Amino acid sequence: MNLRKIVIAIDGYSACGKSTTAKQVAKVLGYTYIDTGAMYRAVTYYFLEHYVSLSNPKEVEAALDKIKITFHVNENMETETFLNGLKIEKEIRKMRISDNVSQV
């Protein structure tokens, strides 16, 4: 039995089509697409919702211990992001998250 897993990573500039390409490749190959950018967005969402100061390393470190990010594939074969059990896919795509995610 072959237990090896293949991971494909795509790097590039913002808005250059990485996610679109990755989703299409995953679909063709029958792989699960994981949006790693969603991980950063989920952490950003948590920090904003819990008033975590990014300029305070101890506060950031303490907050990270309270964050659990999971992904689930829905019936449309789309990956959805969950933060501590709550689906946050729509929330992490909002402008306030986009405006702050680079700090994370």
Q: Can you describe what's shown?
A:
The chain has helices spanning 18-29, 36-49, 57-64, 95-98; strands at 69-73, 79-83, 86-87. It has a 3-stranded antiparallel sheet with strand order 1-2-3. It is 37% helix and 12% strand. The protein has a domain at 35-103. The longest helix has 14 residues, at 36-49. By secondary structure, it is of the alpha+beta class. The chain is built from 4 helices and 3 strands, in the order αααβββα. It starts with 17 loop residues before the first helix and ends in a 6-residue tail after the last helix.
| Largest β-sheet summary | 3 strands, antiparallel
Task: Specify the overall morphology.
Answer: globular
* Strand line-up of the largest beta sheet: 1-2-3
Coarse structural class: alpha+beta
Number of strands: 3
Q: Helix count, per DSSP?
A: 4
Give the helix proportion (percent range): 25-40%
* Spans where pLDDT lies below 50 across 5 or more residues: none
Topology summary:
Blueprint: H1 18-29, H2 36-49, H3 57-64, E1 69-73, E2 79-83, E3 86-87, H4 95-98
Antiparallel strand pairs: 1-2, 2-3
Question: What is this entry, summarized?
Answer:
This protein is an alpha+beta fold. The protein is built from 4 helices and 3 strands, in the order H-H-H-E-E-E-H.
